[in-house]
Amino acid sequence: DKGDYEHFMLKEIHEQPVTIQDTFRGRISMDESKIFLGGILDVMPQLIKARRIIIVACGTSWHAGLVGEYLFEQYARIPVEVEYASEFRYRDPILEKDDLVIAISQSGETADTLAAIRKVRETDATILGICNVAGSSISRETDAGVYTHAGIEIGVASTKAFTSQITVLTMMALLLGSKRQALSASEYKHLIKELIQVPKKIEEILKEEHKIAEIAAVYKDVSNALYMGRGLLFPVALEGALKLKEISYIHAEGYPAAEMKHGPIALIDENMPVLALAANDESYEKMVSNIQEVKARKGKVIAVVTKGDKIIRKMADHIIEIPDCHEAVSPLLAVIPLQILSYHIALMRGCNVDQPRNLAKSVTVE
Ligand code: F6R
Q1: What is the pTM assigned to this prediction?
Q2: What separation in Å is there between the alpha carbon of 188 and the centre of ligand 1?
Q3: Sheet containing 126-131: order of strands
Q4: β-strand 224-229 against 251-256: which pairing, if any?
Q5: Which residue range or ranges hold the SIS domain (predicted)?
Q6: How far is the CA of 86 from the CAs of 89, 90, 138, 169, 363, in angstroms?
Q7: Closest ligand 1 atom to the C-alpha of 57?
Q8: Within a 10 A sphere around the Cβ of 310, how many other Cβ atoms?
Q9: Ligand 1 centroid to 180 CA: how many Å?
Q10: Distance in Å from the first CA to the final CA of the chain
Q11: How many angstroms separate the most distant Cα atoms in the chain?
């Protein structure tokens, strides 16, 4: 049931304050100082001593995996590799007892991801699943796992499942960070608080939908678009570009902002919109220069910035503000305007938003 919404995708975008909360509900202690993930309790000793994490997934779930890579490395100090399931499965993966493999899949039925974990089964590595569909094949064939609790996702373009996957990965990274003593009790608590505040902050972004729709109207007829970000917002750039191409059929690519000058900047002219994700403090100055480089070549810049930003506001053609937050949770906020922008562009182009051409919700063929 779409309720008051015109499309399932729009409904699912708007559900995210609730679905993210559903994902962490009951998994954070009353005093907000600890995380409990019942589904991985049995394998906790293996997780605490894991030497390496290998994340396998496809599409949007693979983008969530890239966010996970930053989180596990930064907060739990565990080295991570993120693999396309389709590539991983056809290699001869080198896995050992203390390796931890995490399969991420909304449907839990993606053929390549399932085949990848069957391959891992032949080794001594521990396998975890992060799935949305309870009882799905991947959730059954893993040693342990954590459900995302995003509720059934109908729109073919994944939105709420993505933010719930990132919520689970954040909880896992913080929990392991604390158990492995990579995070102090106060840092742990502080980051948990930041996560708890995310749903409220997303509600604020959703209130700005009309402004994002105005930007969509300006760019609805373009043929190409670039997305750029750094650090935790680089995977969000990839996800933003994927959302746009899937449902509006506009050719879009995401890049780490620093890679622009190694090639893609050659594409910039007055017809090229560049979506710049500039909401993280760590790389703010660098993003400012990347935006200058695009403007110097007459590109159009739509920047996602932190509320109250003064510098980029003067340089960009359009800005979209998101509430101030800790960098660790910035992907959860920054992706929301990109989902909304893609939705409105696709709508204005007359595309079938919920069922884009050539795509299926669950890819059970290889
Ligand atoms: C994009 C999208 C796909 C899926 C991919 C993996 O919006 O939905 O890229 O993310 O097919 O699907 P799951 O997560 O079900 O394994």
Answers
A1: 0.98
A2: 31
A3: 80-84, 52-57, 99-105, 126-131, 144-147
A4: parallel
A5: 43-183, 215-356
A6: 6, 7, 15, 21, 12
A7: 16
A8: 7
A9: 31
A10: 31
A11: 56
Q: Splitting the chain (366 residues) into consecutive groups of 10 residues, what average pLDDT does each group show?
A: 94 98 97 97 96 98 98 98 96 93 98 97 96 97 97 96 98 98 97 98 98 98 98 98 98 97 95 95 93 97 97 97 97 98 98 92 86
Give residue 289 CA to ligand 1 midpoint distance, Å.
33
Q: What is the C-alpha to C-alpha distance for residues 361 and 366, in angstroms, rounded to an integer?
A: 14
- Asked if residues 342 and 240 have their Cβ atoms less than 8 Å apart, the reply is yes
Q: Which amino acids bring their CB within 6 angstroms of ligand 1? A: 58-61, 105-107, 110, 113, 157-158, 242, 246, 362-363
Based on the residue annotation, tell me whether 189 is a catalytic residue of this protein.
no
- Sheet of 318-322: strand order equals 251-256, 224-229, 273-278, 300-306, 318-322
Q: Which two tokens stand for residue 112?
A: 């390549």
Ligand 1 pocket mutation pick from 56, 61, 166 by most atoms within 8 angstroms of CB: 61
Tens-digit pLDDT profile for residues 50-97: 999 999 999 999 999 999 999 999 999 999 999 999 999 999 889 999
Torsion of CA 86, 88, 90, 93, to 10 degrees: -170
- Residue 251, classed as helix, strand or coil, is strand
